[in-house]
Amino acid sequence: MGTVKNQISNSPKIYVHLCHPGKHYPWNMAGSDISTDARDYGVVVDEQKKRVQCNYCAKEVSSFNRLQSHLGGVRGDVKPCTQVPENIRKLFWNKVNERRASLVPASGSATKRTETTSWSHVEASRCIGRFIYETGVDFDVVNSPSFRRIISATFKDGQVEYNMPNLQELRGPILEDEFEDMKNHFKNISDSWADTGCSILVDDWVNEKGQHHVNFLVDSREGTLYHQSADISSLVGNNVALNLLLDQMIVAVGVGNVVQVIANSATFRTERFNLEFNRKHKSVFWAMSLSYCIGLMLEGILMIETVKETVEQAKFITKYIHGNPAVMILFKDFSDTDSLVVRSNIRFAMPFLTLENIFYHEQSLKRIFSSCEWTKSFRGSSDDGKRMTNLVGNKSSFWREAELVIKATIPLINVISSIDRPEKPSVAYIYNTIDEAKALIKKELEKKKYVYNEISVVIDKIWNEYLHIPLHAAGYYLNPCYYYAKDFFSDAEVTNGLTDCISKLVDNENTRDMISKQLQDYNQAKGGFIEGCAVHIRDNVPPVLWWSRYGRHCPELQRVAIRILGQTCDIGSRYHTNRSVTDKLLSTGNNPIEQQYFKKLAYVHYNLQLRNARSSTYQSRWDGGSEQIDDWIVYDAQDHMEQYDSE
Fold this sequence. Notes:
Number of strands: 11
Oligomer: single chain
Distance between the termini: 96 Å
Helix content: 40-55%
Strand content: 5-15%
Radius of gyration: 30 Å
C-alpha cells in the first residue's frame, strides 16, 4: 500500500500515502478535522515561477490560491481536480468564496453584503463583471432597471435578494479576480509555445482622432492571446523605430518561440521595412495577412475596366432601390431579403458580394422593372427609372458581365472562409487553396481568356510581392492530405520553400542533417507514416494531430512539422475585437492609477473575446460592418418622400 510518516508541528498531522506514493492526504491525529491550509495539499515544484503541484492529480498551478480553486472546483481558468475527496472539495469551495466575498467592500445599504454571502451571489457578480468586461459596455449598465430585472429573474423564489455590484467593485475586486484568471489562462497557453511555436499578429488601425494604434496578439494552435497595445502615431514611416518595437515584442514572447510575424496594413508593407526585419531576425518569417492581401487582389481586379463598369452599375441599382421607399417596398414584396447590399469585414469584398446578391435576385428584379405598373408609373418614366428598366432587362448585357465578375472574384473571397478556422491552421492549406482558386477562375473564364489573363496578373503580383513566403510552400509539402495525393505537385518553389524553412527554424547543423534523413521516411511513407491508421486518416484529421501521432519515430522532423503546420496566415474576422478599449487605454494621460486600471481591463476584455471566438463557430464572410456602406446606399428621405407623395 504505502508508508505512514509523522510530521511534528504545533498541530500534529498524519500523512497517509494511498496508492499514490508522494501524494499527501493531511488529517489531524483524531481523524475528525481536516487541514484548511492549502500548503498541505500541494508541493512547490518551481520556486522562481511559484508553480505548485496538486497532491491528488499532479496538476501544476501558479500559486496556492489557485490550488485552492483547483481543489474546490471553483471554475475559471483552473481545471477542477477530479481526484480530490468530496469533503476536501467542499471545504475549499467554501474557503475560496469566503475569501472572495471578503474582498468586496461594503459601500452603503444598497450594496452591503450579508455575512453569509452565498456562492450564487459571488458567482453572479463575477458573471456580471465578465459580461461587462467582455462586451465593453459601460459599467453604468448595472444601474439600469431593465438590467437589474434580468438579473433578479435568474434567482429562484425564496432566495435572498441579490445586490448588484457597484462601480467600485467592478473596477476593483471583481476585475482583479478576472485579471488573475486570465493571467492563468495566458500562462497555460504560453507554456506550450516552446513546442508548438507561435505567430505574432500586428493588428493596427487609425482611430477617429487620427491616432495610429496597434494591438499585438499571439496565436498558436492552443489559442490566441492579447499581449499588449501601443500608440505608433509617431513611429509610422520610421522603419528603424517600428522594427525596434517588433524586436521588443519578439523578445517578450520568446525568440525561440516565434515562427512568424503577420501584419495587416500598409504601415508594415514597405520594402525597406521588410529588408530591415529580415536582416535582424534570421529565425523569424515576416508576412502580410491573407485577408489583407485578398483585399489588395480584389482592389486590383476592381481597376480592370470591364469589372469597374459592372460594379458601378451594381452600385447604381442598390442606390436607386434603397434610396426610394416605394421601390424598396416593391422589392421586398418580390424578393426574400430586406437588402441588396452585403456587408463584409474583408477589404474590397463588399462590391463583389453585393453584385453576387444582385445576380441571385435577377428574376425578381426583372419582374419588378418590366411590369406595366412600373413602366407606366411616375418613376418608371423618369430618366433614372428608364435606366433601371434597361439595366436589369432581358436584353441587358449587365447580367452576363455580372456573372463574369462573380466567377472571377468569389473564389478568392471564399479562400478566407475555407481556411480561416481554429481547427484548420491556414499555413497548412493556403498554398494549395490559392492554387485551386486560380484554377477555378481559369476554368470559369475559359471563354474569356483575355479577362483571366488580366486577373491572373493581379493575383500573382500580390501573391509574389506580399503574401507568399517559404512557410506556405513548406506547409503544403508537410500536409499529408496533399503530399500523398495523386495530384501533389512539387516544383522548385515547393522544395526550396521547405529547405528555407528548415534552415531558418533549425540552427543546429547536425539536427538539419537528421531532418534530411527523416524526410526520406516521410517521402516514401515508411515507418510510423504507414502504420495503423496513418494512411486512412490523412484527409480527416488536422495535419498537426497527424504528425503528433505518427511522426514520433522522426522527432526532429516532427517538431519542425508541428511548428510550421500549426501557424495561421491571417488576421481574420475571428481576431477582430472592440478597439475602443485600446483607444481609451492609450488616451489616459499620465495618471498611473488609471493607466493600470485600463491595462487590466484591456487585458481581460481582449482575452475573453479571443477565447470565446475560438470556441464559437466561424463567422461567415457576410458578417461584420463596412466603411463602404454609405457609398452603396443613398437615402435622402425628404427628396424621395416628396416624389412619393407626387404620385
